[in-house]
Specification:
Layout (H helix, E strand, L loop, with lengths): L11 H19 L6 H7 L4 H4 L1 H24 L1 H20 L4 H29 L5 H8 L2 H43 L25 H30 L4 H29 L3 H18 L5 H12 L4 H12 L6 H30 L2 H6 L1 H14 L3
Helix pairs in contact: 1-5, 1-6, 1-7, 1-8, 4-5, 4-6, 4-14, 5-6, 5-8, 6-7, 6-14, 7-10, 7-13, 8-10, 9-10, 9-11, 9-13, 9-14, 9-16, 10-12, 10-13, 11-12, 11-13, 11-16
């Protein structure tokens, strides 16, 4: 058995930053499409239904690959898998740069999606392995901003790049960036000699044991409800706002504001959890905040809309960091870490998928967007109950 106090870790902030930047570039690849989707669809003669798959393929791939990816990380090591993710994302982007049809471009996006799910699952595992336990919350707070940072950069960088160098140029630039940051992880992250495989006792624990962990299931299912709330707002709030007279630019800003503020919220929540020595209270507070935030963003086009966006970003977006920091507490055996993270990411994909599916049905039942948002109340209540029941 290894004494954690004797392990010589690298500086936690450096480790978290390197993994975060590698994840960030994967998120940039995911979000390089939305701001230029109309132009890309036209250039490849794709109808809207087909063009939508350029984004949805990422979630679709993740639902099926998250669990197997956890097992691969256990076998080959999470750091190596993060590097492999960078290579796959770059490879997919290079294939996309040579696409001559919409089908080929979507296929290339699927390759990128595989890399995306690898970094989604293996990034938190890597931080859990290479960061000292007392700084895990803070490190997860830094890691948890990878999607937000990647989205913001992609939304602002892609349009001017596309205008100046075209699709092939953008795809090549992003591929090179993925390889550079993947190389930084490969070279910059060192495995403490105390964690070398020859120093670790072999365990006969079966990974299937993780599926018998009630607290793990409760935490993961609670996260499903958060993802439903988040995706309901991010997917449909712009439609509500523009249909009520808000300009496209203002609607885009209002719905991207939570992600921008999340860059601040995640590290703050991570640091607070380390300071108070607990993640559960912050986990429940951040999930609770999502409901009034969602309702406000579906109820007003004025100041209430912005208040909802601020609550969403500064409080609600602290939730993913708390979930990631809690996963090791409900699933403490290192041999089961891959399965636990894989299950969590499967639930994330399920929640994001449901979030983009349920609101139209709620709209039909409620008759208007504000009434539809109130159907999210039982979703939030279920999540709070599940989170409260989970012991961590």
């Amino acid at each position: 058995m290894i004494n954690e106090n004797k392990i010589k870790y690298q500086p936690w902030a450096m480790v978290a930053a390197l993994f975060m930047f590698s994840g960030m570039v994967a998120a940039m690849h995911q979000f390089k499409i939305p701001t230029i989707m109309t132009e890309v669809a036209k250039s490849f003669n794709m109808p809207l239904e087909q063009a939508a798959w350029m984004m949805s393929i990422f979630t679709f791939v993740g639902i099926f690959l998250a669990l197997p990816t956890g097992g691969l990380a256990q076998k080959f090591g999470p750091k190596n898998m993060v590097v492999a993710a960078a290579v796959l994302v770059a490879a997919g982007s290079l294939v996309g740069s040579m696409a001559t049809s919409g089908g080929m471009l979507i296929f290339s996006r699927a390759i990128e999606g595989v890399g995306f799910i690898l970094v989604t699952v293996c990034g938190p595992m890597a931080i859990g392995k290479y960061v000292e336990p007392s700084k895990l919350g803070s490190a997860m707070g830094i890691w948890a901003v990878w999607v937000s940072v990647g989205q913001v950069i992609a939304f602002n960088l892609t349009p001017p790049l596309y205008k100046s160098i075209g699709l092939s140029g953008v795809w090549i630039v992003y591929a090179v960036l993925a390889l550079v940051l993947g190389s930084a992880v490969l070279v910059g992250i060192k495995t403490p000699k105390e964690l070398n495989s020859e120093n670790i006792e072999q365990s006969n624990v079966k990974t299937s044991e993780a599926f018998k962990n009630k607290d793990l299931w409760l935490l993961c299912l609670s996260f499903v409800t958060f993802c439903i709330l988040m995706m309901s707002v991010l997917t449909f709030a712009p439609t509500f706002l523009t249909k009520n007279g808000v300009s496209v630019a203002t609607a885009s800003f209002a719905t991207s504001l939570p992600m921008l503020l999340g860059i601040i919220a995640s590290p703050i929540f991570g640091g607070l959890s380390d300071k108070i020595g607990s993640t559960k209270s912050l986990h429940l507070i951040s999930l609770f905040a999502m409901l009034p935030a969602a309702i406000m963003m579906f109820s007003s086009t004025g100041i209430e809309m912005y208040v909802g966006a601020v609550i969403f970003g500064l409080v609600g977006m602290g939730h993913p960091a708390m979930v990631l920091a809690s996963i090791g507490k409900v699933n403490p055996q290192p041999e089961l870490a891959g399965t636990g993270i894989g299950l969590l990411m499967t639930c994330q994909g399920l929640g994001m998928f449901l979030g983009s599916m349920l609101m139209p049905y709620f709209l039909q039942m409620g008759g208007n967007w504000t009434a539809a948002s109130w159907f999210l109340a039982p979703v939030a209540a279920i999540g709070l109950i599940l989170g409260a029941l989970s012991k961590f």
